C-alpha cells in the first residue's frame, strides 16, 4: 500500500478549531461494512447500534499540560518547550521538543515563570528539534510536578491557530481520563458525555479500559511512499488482567466489541494471543496498522475524521476497507463534517 493512496483534498475550514458545544452532539457518520451503507447521525445516536452485553474498550490515558514557554538565558528569546516524556524522575530529566530549535544548544539554560523559579539545562540533542533537559527546582518532586502543571498549557494540536482557552483543559480530555501521560488526547473518546455513558450503562453495555499514552509520533508525517518502511514512534501501553477477562469473555460470547479510537485499537492489537484473544500487556508498542490488516479483537470501532496521509486514517482504512473509507471521506468533505482532534466522529460496524 502506497502513501499517495491516502491523499485527498481537505478544505481548511473543515479543520475544527473548537469542539461541538455538547460532547455527544458532534455529528456521527455510521459506516456499515457489510451493507456498504453510510448514515448521518449525531454521536448520541450511537446507543441505537449496541445491545446489552456489547463492549466498549476505552483508552483512559490523561493529557498533561505539556506545552511550556521559557526564556533563554542572556538573550531572553522566547522558546517553546514541549514535554514528551519523563526519562528519570530523580534527576528530573525530560525528553522535549524545542522551538525554534536552531537557537537551543547543549549547555544553554532556560528560565520559566515570572519568578524564574524553574530552570532547565540542555544536556543533549536527540533529534533535529529534540533535546534532553535537566530541570532544576528548589522543592520536592511533588512540588516540581505541580510547578510543571502550573506553567504548562493544554497541548492543542498546531493546526488550531487560536490561543489556548480555559475550556480546553476540560474539553481536550475524555471524561474518563485517569492515568496521566499523554501529550495528545485520544480524541474519539472525547465525544462521550456523562449522560450518554449513563444511558449506555442502563442499556447493559459494558466498558473495559486500556491505557495508551498518546505521543506526538501519532501525528508524525509519513515520509516514505512504501508504507511497510514507515516506523512508528513507541508509546507506553498497559492492559491489565481485568480488561483481558472482560474482553475475552465478550469475544467468546460473540458480542460486539468496539474499540473507541485508534489508540485503544493499537493497544489491543499489540497484545493478541495465537488464538485471537487479548493478553495482559505492559510495555511499549510501535505497532503500525495499515491496509491490508486482519484485526483480531474488535469488530467495530469509533474514530474521528483524520487528515490526509496520516497513520490514523490508514488504520481506519484497514478496518473499514480502503475503497469504502475513501468513499466515506469524500462524502464527509461534501457534507462538511469537521475533521481532526475537535472534529466529528465515525462509527464503523
Structure report:
This protein has helices at residues 141-151, 168-171, 194-202, 241-252, 262-269, 311-320, 322-334, and strands at 27-32, 37-42, 55-59, 61-63, 67-72, 78-88, 93-99, 109-112, 118-125, 130-137, 179-182, 206-212, 235-239, 257-260, 281-285, 300-304, 345-348. The chain has 349 residues and is α/β, with parallel strands linked by helices. A nine-stranded mixed β-sheet has the order 2-1-17-16-14-3-12-13-15. Strands 5-6-7-10-9-8 form a six-stranded antiparallel beta barrel. Strand 8 (109-112) and strand 9 form a beta hairpin.
What's this, in brief?
This protein has 349 residues and is α/β, with parallel strands linked by helices.
Q: Which key features would you list for this structure?
A:
349 residues, six-stranded antiparallel beta barrel, alpha/beta, 19% helix, globular
Write down the overall mean pLDDT.
95
Helix content: 10-25%
| Distance from first to last alpha carbon | 23 Å
What structural category do the secondary elements indicate? alpha/beta
For the secondary structure, the number of strands is: 17
Rg computed from alpha carbons, rounded to a whole number of angstroms? 21 Å
Pick out the low-confidence regions.
none
Any idea what the shape is? globular
Strand order of the largest sheet: 2-1-17-16-14-3-12-13-15
Percent strand: 25-35%
